[in-house]
Amino acid sequence: MILLAVDTALAACSAAVAHRDGEGVSVTARGEVIGRGHAERLMAVIAAATEAAGVTLAEVEAFAVTVGPGSFTGLRVGVAAVRGFALATGRPALAIGTLEALAAEAALARPGRSILAVLDARKDEVYVQSFDAAGAPLDAPAVATRTAAAARAVALDAVLIGSGALPIVALEPRLEIAGPQDFAAIETIAHLAFARFDAGAFVSPRPLYLRPPDAKPQTAARLARLTPTRPGEVRA
Amino acid sequence: MRILGIETSCDETAAAVVLRDAEGRGRILADVVHSQLADHAPFGGVVPEIAARAHVDLLDGLIARALDEAGIGFADLDGVAATAGPGLIGGVIVGLMTAKAIAAVHRLPLLAVNHLEGHALTPRLTDAVAYPYLLLLISGGHSQFVAVEGLGRYRRLGTTVDDALGEAFDKTAKLLGLSYPGGPAVERMAATGDPARFDLPRPLMRRDSLDFSFSGLKTALRLAAEACQPVDDQTVADLCASFQAAVGDVVRFKATLALERFRRDTGEAVPILVAAGGVAANRAVGRALAEAAAAVGGRLVIPPPKLCTDNGAMIAWAGAERLAAGLVDGLEVQARARWPLDGDAAPKLGSGQWGAKA
């Protein structure tokens, strides 16, 4: 079983070929921390990973991608590529959350602790998801204020992980950080993808934006009108 | 050769398959377009983030449909073409990444197509028009005259220094409380209006320039409308008719001038004027262009409306022409928000303009 995992959700532009047989899983990963410019670099990173693993894209049996939360453009780069791979090969696609991937790493670093995965979402907000001591999600990813996220972490006695962790510790100095990473390793994402594959959770991946598009509906015509409208006109 | 074409640069998600035969003639095997009109209508214009979100949800399904309608699979393709700009960058990235993925899996040549080149080469697909010809591209994003001298040989003769013509229609419709998109709404209202009631300006109507300017016209229309508040339906119709009359006069004048200049430059006895873009479907504009062509003894070609507005077939066709000429792109190719057709054109800036649009 050969799987390709792709992550362009945050600062990293990464790809991993994960191979599983009777003896276990081996992962061949390539990636760069670039911040932006994922659309130009991704195919070269994928080519480096597949070449190093000695496989072609046509041999890959499932494609996994991080769907967010993260940079809107970054999410679309990875999701468009993986949906293109799935379409072009007829193979299934799998969606992995950026927060659940971070939580998986926190669970390894601090076993037995509940976890709050937090990513900086700007505007004094964070993307946040909590997990129990067994690593199972307690809620869905959401946007929250830093204050609310800090309160949640205190209530759960959770360790923090992700780029939103430091500002929250600044609010609640008793809280602990499970690790320094701002994003999960592509190897972690690949391992989660196997679990999802085994569960048969095949999807058309969709970016998990968690915020609506920044646009306001047109309220009214700017002109004062005397009479009712004709057909074909729109009045708010 | 068979080329898959992908277009996602604005608010249409589109995929098509085009066949180019050995003689260089084209045939559309499939052409599917999903218009996001309804998604943007409440906002009175295209919202880039909404468009990008829709493209990523819709595109793979549309590609599958296009291949199905063409009755072929990926293995039957000779190349994958996608719009790489200019346009709304979030959407362009979605189409380009999808094309890269398909090209990588099937080891197909990738053709990163300039959206404007797609419009520019469409008459060769629909009407087998030979080089050289004069293109007037009039849409929500562009208003420009381009001398199309050969594949990759485009000379911009004039462009708008502020708003695109389609943008002027949309803003007029928005001001008057008409539906989006503005072109058809303004045209409908103008039908019962008096084009002589409001004396609106004809900006930049000078013989020394093929550039357009529409922002002053838009402002004049707003002032005229505000002076009549509260406006009744007849006033709205008269405003639309007066606006369209001004646009028609400008377009007729500029097209005549452009055809004369094009004939002088090329020596073509019967210069061909090709109109493309959504505004080319406006009948008043079409009439003005026909009059301009007749005035100089030229020929007007307007592709069918479906191929005037954004579509995948024009991208596939431009890709086919490029592939036939050996022009292939690498998988690192970048999506570009701004990408003038004549690569080295300097940005055109009108007064009070914040940045170049094309």
Automatic annotation (TrEMBL), chain A:
Protein name, UniProt field: tRNA (Adenosine(37)-N6)-threonylcarbamoyltransferase complex dimerization subunit type 1 TsaB
UniProt-listed Gene3D superfamilies: 3.30.420.40
A family per Pfam: TsaD
Annotated GO CC locations: cytosol
Entry's Gene Ontology BP terms: tRNA threonylcarbamoyladenosine modification
Keyword Acetylation part of the UniProt annotation: no
Family annotation (PANTHER family): TRNA N6-ADENOSINE THREONYLCARBAMOYLTRANSFERASE, TRNA THREONYLCARBAMOYLADENOSINE BIOSYNTHESIS PROTEIN TSAB
Gcp-like domain: residues covered: 32-140
Signal sequence range: none
From TrEMBL, chain B:
One CC-aspect GO term: cytoplasm
Keyword DNA-binding assigned: no
EC numbers, comma separated: 2.3.1.234
Binding residues annotated for substrate, in chain numbering: 137-141, 170, 183, 187, 282
Note accompanying the cofactor annotation: Binds 1 Fe(2+) ion per subunit.
Record's catalysed reaction(s): L-threonylcarbamoyladenylate + adenosine(37) in tRNA = N(6)-L-threonylcarbamoyladenosine(37) in tRNA + AMP + H(+)
Keyword NADP listed: no
Subcellular location: Cytoplasm
The Gcp-like domain, residue ranges: 28-317
GO molecular function: iron ion binding; tRNA N(6)-L-threonylcarbamoyladenine synthase activity
Co-factor requirement: Fe(2+)
Entries under InterPro entries matching the protein: ATPase_NBD, Gcp-like_dom, KAE1/TsaD, Peptidase_M22_CS, TsaD
BP-aspect Gene Ontology terms: tRNA threonylcarbamoyladenosine modification
Keyword field: Acyltransferase, Cytoplasm, Iron, Metal-binding, Transferase, tRNA processing
Binding locations of Fe cation: 115, 119, 310
Domain of life, source organism: Bacteria
Annotated function: Required for the formation of a threonylcarbamoyl group on adenosine at position 37 (t(6)A37) in tRNAs that read codons beginning with adenine. Is involved in the transfer of the threonylcarbamoyl moiety of threonylcarbamoyl-AMP (TC-AMP) to the N6 group of A37, together with TsaE and TsaB. TsaD likely plays a direct catalytic role in this reaction.
Similarity field: Belongs to the KAE1 / TsaD family.
HAMAP family the record matches: TsaD
Name of this chain's protein: tRNA N6-adenosine threonylcarbamoyltransferase
Organism: Siculibacillus lacustris
Gene for this chain: tsaD
